[in-house]
């Protein structure tokens, strides 16, 4: 079992602590939180060992799980690398693209593995269909959330939209060509609602909307490719695959047939895969353990986390144009 420590015991940090404590692939050594009083309360309530400093925690572990505000990701990950420790870091990978690139270089030079917490890659609905998304040409994503003061210190692009950016980049095998976006600040100092149009070199277009001031929660993406429509509901953990094929000469009476102006007939059919229940956060942490133990590539690499951040920054920069 890998010895692991958690940096940050806030809302998400406590979830990580609980799951790592349950995991059969990790031995939870303890955690460090900069707020000493809060750290004492968490340690007492959940019986986790609280370390007074990150340096002390690093000495006792093989892996550090960084669940702190984004601005601190770089410095803490650098300390982990310098100590020769593997690290899992929540999204976005760092505060700037330059920091992310430097972090990646340092990790490779030191032989340290890192994984970025883009948890939607492990959403069971997305995992059930991502292998069926082979050449999407139009993508539409909506990620809407009710207002929550937590996270409003960063633009909604880095808070919410980056989830969809990463998922889309994982299935579109092409470079980003152009980004157009608009954002509006309603209640925060940074944009609370944003829309982005991302064009890829292969002709694919992705239209993304993210809001943290909605009256209801929604996390849906739709992928359109030749002869197929694939929808993923990340919130409800459901998916739907609608495909078309050449219609048989004598279709059965219940077949759904479409005929275009040229007389070509296509049959519509459903190819909905089974969605396996899972805990996405536990899965991302445990697959990272597998990557370390087997010396394989983590599912969400530092390079991929960097690219998601790079595109997110392109969206933010487009607000002012």
Describe the structure.
This protein has a nine-stranded mixed beta sheet. The chain has a five-stranded parallel beta sheet with strand order 2-1-3-4-5, sandwiched between helices. The protein folds into two domains: 2-117 and 280-299, NAD(P)-binding Rossmann-like Domain (Rossmann fold, 3-Layer(aba) Sandwich), CATH 3.40.50; 121-242 and 270-277 and 310-318, Dihydrodipicolinate Reductase, domain 2, CATH 3.30.360.10. The chain is an alpha/beta fold. The longest helix has 17 residues, at 302-318. The chain has nine helices and 14 strands. The chain has helices at residues 11-22, 36-46, 54-60, 73-82, 97-110, 124-129, 156-171, 280-294, 302-318; strands spanning 2-7, 26-32, 63-66, 86-90, 114-117, 138-144, 176-184, 193-200, 205-211, 218-225, 228-233, 238-246, 256-259, 265-270.
Architecture (CATH level 2) name of the largest domain: 2-Layer Sandwich
Shape: globular
Distance linking N and C termini: 51 Å
Secondary-structure content class: alpha/beta
- How many helical stretches? 9
Protein name: Scyllo-inositol 2-dehydrogenase (NAD(+))
EC number: 1.1.1.370
Keywords: Oxidoreductase
Enzyme class: oxidoreductase
Short structural description:
The protein is an alpha/beta fold and 321 residues long. Helix content is 34%, strand content 28%.
């Amino acid at each position: 079992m890998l010895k692991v420590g958690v940096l940050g015991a806030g809302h998400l940090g406590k979830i990580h602590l609980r799951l790592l404590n349950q995991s059969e692939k990790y031995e939870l050594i303890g955690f460090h939180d900069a707020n000493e009083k809060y750290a004492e309360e968490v340690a007492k309530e959940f019986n986790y060992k609280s370390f007074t400093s990150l340096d002390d925690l690093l000495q006792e572990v093989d892996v550090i799980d960084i669940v702190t505000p984004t601005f601190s990701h770089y410095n803490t990950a650098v300390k982990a690398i310098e100590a020769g420790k593997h690290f899992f870091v929540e999204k976005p990978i760092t505060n700037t693209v330059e920091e992310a690139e430097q972090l990646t270089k340092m990790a490779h030079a030191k032989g340290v593995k890192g994984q970025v917490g883009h948890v939607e890659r492990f959403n069971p609905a997305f995992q059930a269909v991502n292998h069926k998304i082979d050449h999407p040409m139009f993508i539409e994503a909506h990620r809407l959330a009710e207002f929550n003061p937590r996270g409003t210190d960063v633009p909604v692009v880095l808070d919410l939209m980056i989830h969809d950016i990463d998922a889309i980049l994982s299935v579109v095998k092409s470079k980003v060509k152009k980004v157009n976006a608009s954002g509006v600040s309603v209640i925060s100092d940074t944009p609370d609602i944003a829309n982005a149009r991302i064009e890829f070199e292969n002709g694919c277009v992705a239209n993304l909307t993210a809001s943290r001031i909605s009256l209801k929660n929604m996390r849906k993406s739709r992928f359109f490719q030749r002869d197929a429509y694939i929808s993923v509901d990340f919130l409800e953990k459901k998916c739907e695959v609608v495909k078309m094929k050449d219609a048989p000469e004598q279709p059965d009476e219940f077949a759904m047939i479409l005929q275009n102006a040229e007389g070509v007939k296509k049959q519509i059919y459903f190819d909905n895969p089974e969605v396996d229940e899972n805990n996405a956060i536990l899965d991302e942490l445990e697959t990272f353990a597998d990557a370390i133990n087997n010396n394989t590539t983590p599912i969400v690499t530092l390079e991929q986390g960097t690219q998601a951040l790079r595109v997110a920054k392109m969206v933010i920069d487009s607000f002012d144009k």
